[in-house]
Description:
- Keywords: ATP-binding, Cell membrane, Membrane, Nucleotide-binding, Translocase, Transport.
- This is Spermidine/putrescine import ATP-binding protein PotA.
- The complex is composed of two ATP-binding proteins (PotA), two transmembrane proteins (PotB and PotC) and a solute-binding protein (PotD).
- By secondary structure, the chain is of the alpha+beta class.
- The protein has two domains: about 5-235, 3-Layer(aba) Sandwich (Rossmann fold); about 240-370, CATH 2.40.50.100.
- The chain is built from eight helices and 22 strands.
- The chain has helices at about 45-55, 95-105, 110-125, 140-150, 170-185, 195-205, 220-225, 230-235; strands spanning about 5-15, 20-30, 35-40, 60-65, 70, 80-85, 155-160, 190-195, 205-210, 215-220, 240-250, 255-260, 265-270, 270, 280-285, 290, 305-315, 320-325, 330-335, 350-360, 365, 370.
- Strands 6-7-8-3-9-10 form a six-stranded mixed β-sheet, with helices on both faces. The chain has a five-stranded antiparallel β-sheet with strand order 13-12-11-15-21, with no helix packed on it. It has a five-stranded antiparallel β-sheet with strand order 16-20-17-18-19, with no helix packed on it.
- Helix 3 packs across helix 4 (about 140-150).
- It binds adenosine-5'-diphosphate and magnesium ion (MG).
- Adenosine-5'-diphosphate binds near residues 43 and 44.
- Adenosine-5'-diphosphate binds near residues 15, 41 and 44.
Amino acid sequence: MKEYSVVLSNVTKIFDDSFTAVDNVSLTIEQGEFFSLLGPSGCGKTTILRMIAGFEDPTFGNITLNGKNIIGTPPNEREVNTVFQNYALFPHLNVFENIAFSLRLRREPEDQVRRKVKEMIELTRLNGHVEKMPSQLSGGQKQRVAIARALVGRPTVLLLDEPLAALDAKLRQHMLVELDTIHDEVGITFIYVTHDQSEAMSISDHVAVMNEGEIIQLGTPFEVYESPVNAFVANFIGETNFFTGNVVKVEDEYFLLDTEKFGEIWFYKDMEVIEGQEIQVSLRPEKVKVTRDMPVAPEGVKLNVLKGVVDETIYLGNQTKYTVAIGQSYLKAFKQHVRYLFDEVIITWKDDVYVWWFADDSYVLRETGGVPVEE
Ligand SMILES: Nc1ncnc2c1ncn2[C@@H]1O[C@H](COP(=O)(O)OP(=O)(O)O)[C@@H](O)[C@H]1O
Ligand SMILES: [Mg+2]
């Protein structure tokens, strides 16, 4: 049997008897996993963490920690600790004493305090900084002290509320890798809150995508990216092209959709669909190719080919983002520069192009209809 670390059952939080910040959320988080709550600002992520930590009580619903109901248990008696965005270090204590703080409160013997703090200093690679005051540390170092301080009391769950938001992009990438390493080393459950999809995607075992107090989709990073349940998830996690229309014909593994913007197009039937049904399909721009020449479909492969004119190009070094006008509508196509040929004639603004993709590379948005195809 799997061990569950944190389980939320139908948890709702209503503030001031009127505002529902968290709406009937159920979550099962396994022992030792790296779990992320991802969603736009104000969607209820922090409120969920505060309920797990014990700073707020749910209005309805239940929370268990390691199999025990914790509603009513005060925060300091829960085996949970939190790392906040603003670090919340004690400015008048040096690094060592910041980390030692909770152990001193519990009046642990001096040799034990020294041993535990030293272990955390090794883990977070703060050697050489123990005597420094918080004001003498860089942002990344402060964050590492906050993590060490939260871990020193050996919680079974670590809550991290946008811990990297105050750092610049390069440092954030670096700290993400460090967090991943720390997680591997301590082996406890991490619940990570962020509004940044790339952060959540890169380190999580599972991601819960939230909006307006609700969990919209829960899955692995691969699942939420490749098969989003609705337009909100598809848009929030990366960029995409949408096709909306009625199913005209169903044939083997494909169906023909009469799309509002591009006419009839074949899509892969990853869900059971029926003729006449209105559905929405998502096609990621990196799956779409832009060429001057008409593509030739290999034997047995279904291609969709549209003719258009390049409307916009954004050169990003590693890739170019194209927007191609097809009649009155637009498609996005991202071209990865895997090679750079100096004699290649670069596709640019106003060029006549073919826009094409493998029919298998799209996904029916689950919530727009259809039922999963039986395995
Ligand atoms: N103590 C509170 N009283 C009233 N409203 C609150 C309180 N705490 C949070 N909220 C509201 O609940 C919603 C969710 O907040 P929060 O959980 O902080 O979102 P997130 O962390 O996803 O940005 C917001 O609209 C916020 O204004
Ligand atoms: Mg928040």
